[in-house]
Amino acid sequence: MNKTLRIIFLSLILFLLCGPLIVVSGVSLNAKKRLFFPPEGISLRWYEELLTESSWLIPVQNSLTIAFTSSFIALSIALPLAYFLWRYRVFYARALFTLGISPFILPPVITALGFLSFWVTIGFYGKMFATMISHAIFFVTLPLVTISLGFESIDHEIVEAAETMGADSRTVFKTVVFPLIRPYMISGFAFAFVLSLNEYIVAYMVSGFTVETLPIKIFNSLRYGYTPVMASVAVVFVLLAVIIFGLIGRFGDLPKLLGAMNPENK
Amino acid sequence: MIGERPKGIRSHLPVAYPALMLGIFFIIPFGIMVAISFFHRQPGGFYIPGFEFTNYKNLYTALFGRTLSFSLFVAGLSAAVCVSLAFPFTYFITRMRRRTQVIWLVFLMSVLSLSEVIIGFAWSLLLSRTAGISNLMVWLGLMEQPKAWYPGFAALLFGICYLAFPYTVLVLYPPLSRLDPALPEASQTLGASPLRTFFGVIVGSMRNAIVAAFVMVFVFTLGVYLLPQILGRPQHWTLSVLITDQAIYQTNMPMAASMAIFFMFVSLLLVALTMVIGKGKKIKTQ
Known about the structure:
Chain A is mainly α.
């Protein structure tokens, strides 16, 4: 296609994608309490409030704890599953893999309602660990897909070479397989972590009234009176995502993770 | 050692923990939800075990029908907008140098990971009377007075497209990056204009990928829950809002469960459609 046309089109998309982010960061730097753009005077007071006011600090802590624990649990489920599916051929492999990716395919409200009915029935509705486990299951898809991709990219000859040299399967896993899939594990963990931080409906249904996470806190403040702290939270979230995905892009193979066949072509 | 059959019960061991976790915390919750959808609701928010189709029969209301058709309509419309914008966009990205590609992908992933609540908040600011585009228009002399452009249908559509656009790009990225660069080259050597090459050759050879992406994005946008509440009016509320409302505020779990199951069947039907389309593609290339 025409080169100028292409540049105009790409800039337009970039502008549309950046627009909301620019306005939000402008508002977060506003010195006055009104949500106003362009900012009237620059100040970092809303960032300070985010880190000092307990009404914001508690959701920050809740969100970080839930995101960290749940992505760890998700990883612990995904790693043995992906390993097993790669190592052995079993008739139920396909079913297990589908089970692992289905929480992510369905509209989230369905999975969320399933979790709600479960935790209410067994009596743990409103507990933080219920949210942790629900998030772990909800996001297990991400480490499962990335780690499976990692296993698929392992050259079979390396594994065979190690076996020929007399390594048993535990040694092979520890010294050959594990180092090769480690970057995929980290990416899977990071994906799950970022998405859990941003997740609303599952956290809300499972324990929204007792364990306030950041997205829940933002939505509540949206409904009951605005404050520029919301904008500063949004900026922190964007920065966090940029840093985490930037690191994956820098040290990992992002085009391959996202499914390009031969990224080295260009 | 790879791809062999497991020997003995011990070698099945590594799969026991993941299977148990998924079984207990995914299949059982689902089973409970299905069961609740057949339970009998008592006034006051409780339900007792039973087996009746009342909840499903109660779905047949004007509100549910209207909400379902609105959800399908808005999801279909935003999926169409997203795919038609994201297709040329993704194509351009895949033809860039690897380093530039990675930067774009990092940016898109970051936008994609943003919570619906943050996107809703950002757009409500952008369309607001005090901090929005209309202020910019007034400043530029294009408008007399700043105006609030939300809540409303257009605001909702913008928000959903913003949410779904990065997802659409990521769905289209694998097939487009595998597109043989020789294909457009051949078309241009044979004298087709760049525009004609794009629509005739690239869009044509990617028809199945486009349809599959449309369905994926459609299902993705069916799940929006917060945006309709932030950017839309009550008549713009989607099925996700209605289900949550039934479950949390009306404490009518059996009703919410039956709605969710009905919703799941609609979504599964769409996913099945994607798979059929995917299969059709394989047969064609053989």
